[in-house]
Task: structure prediction
Amino acid sequence: MIVKKISIVVSVFFSMSIFAQDVAKTDVEIKPIVKISYLDSVKNSFKKDEMATRVDSLWMNELVSLDIYDDLTKDIQTINTDVTVDEELPTELLKQRLKAMNGKSPFNIEYNQGLENIIKSFLKNRKKSFSRLMALSEYYFPIFEDAFARQNVPLEIKYLAVVESALNPKAVSKMGATGIWQFMYGTGKQYALKIDSYIDERSDPLKATAAASEYMTKMYNVFGDWELVLASYNSGPGNVTKAIRRSGGKTSYWDIRNHLPKETQGYVPAFLATMYLFEYHKEHGINPQRAVVKNFETDTVQIKNQMSFKQIADLLDMPQSQIQLLNPSYKLNVVPFYQGEPHYLRLPKDKIATFVSNEDKIYDYVAYQSQNKTLPAQLALKVAPKANAKPDRTIDTDVKWYKVKRGDNLGTIAAKYNVNVIDLKKWNNLKTNAVALGRSLKIKSEADAVIKNPKEIKSTLAVEKRSEEAIAAADDKNNTHPQEYVVAAGDNLGSIAKKFGTTIADLKELNSLTSNNIGLGKTLVVAKAVPEIVEENAVATAIASNSSIDSFRKKATSAKDLGEDYYVKKGDSLYSISKKYPGVTISDIKKWNNIKDGEIKPGMKLKING
Result:
């Protein structure tokens, strides 16, 4: 009996041991293998630098936003200095403050009704803007003051950059004046600012400020009066000398003001009003937003090889917008490398430390990427043998318009047409959820216009996207990247939009453009994503070969051969349904189901292939 019990216990322990081994074996087998990319392997080998510099993303967005520039420019050009503004600021108190400012400034700051009206207008309409501008000034003003001190230029001229560009290095006027100091092309060249396909030093705060300082010094030697220097900066020295002659030889800005161009008549008062608001912001309850990063918290490193902002951002774990902010003179988001000519990259100091400590690895990664460039699918189709068909770039869109009625909002309109609010805002360039009564809204039956290609190309791309066998063969080597186009001579947004089957509004949104002006050589994103094929990839070979295309077709299941019913679910649209069935278009679904207006409702039965 005892022996029997012992044998049972031993067998139980033996079974438990085997079960534990099986569990352990199972754990080992199901543990996923994590692939580490070349980029990650490079970054993992970086020496870490624990500096505490922090960059606030909201402030970065503020630095590259053009809304303040647009508002202030419009104000200065249209403001009427003769219209009295109702704002609580006693005239006598203003006179006292202007007198105090005049006592410590080389400018002739005197009270007049026009200046009072502009100050009150800014206080009434632009308080919030000036609060934001004061945050930007913490970054830019030290740069200006350093340059002006070297040339013995009054430091107060730093406020002129607020009037000129709202402290935005990417600001471009309707006339083409560019950068913080708004230099025209010819003037920029005159003051040795480099402007080519890669670089526009009019947008470089350091170099443009040095040029502005040199201009101010030369004009002061001509006119001997700082107000006239400012007037000449805005309208040119020729207009100032004409105004002096027309006034009978008077040389005070206020005496010749009525003989100057209309914009210049409001220019100097706007400068003085800006100076006043910066000096007395506390008294008017303007609370400056604080800048998280100061200019002295950044540094530069000389680049030894051409590299893109994306490569730098990926390697240093920082947003591209931050690199664009700190390096606004690079037009194409690329730091070029010309033999014998230095180019510098400005970064936060902690990123500079990481860059310098790992410089060799960074350049090795850039070289690796250059050697393994991918070939866009459309280009591969052009250069592949036997690929003679030309793409048919007709756009398959179904657009209708809806007039906003009382009680409507974006949510109810989106629900009515089975689309989402984000798409509605995108199609109609809406920045907020507010929509005006009576406005006509564009409604698309598909999220984006689809570029049609010949049948062979279309079948191949569909197989690439949907066939599991093709995806497995590619082994994750197919990627999607934005389709880009380099602006050539004679191009404009309209001609580019027509060429790529898109709209001007979509081009502006994809490239964050605030106007229709585009520079020669600028790279524009013309489509969100285009399949790219690694040159050595087997899928590229398949596209190049007609026989391979035929074999792919056999593997792909065409929904047109299925003949089935589909019941519409909540949130469905004709576009989303067509995407569920390879080879089926919106036009097919409409034809099979006799749909004319594109409207479908949840529960509705749709025939697929009749």
The mean pLDDT is 74. The longest helix spans residues 2-30. DSSP finds 29 helices and eleven strands in the chain. The CA atoms of residues 306 and 336 lie 5 Å apart.
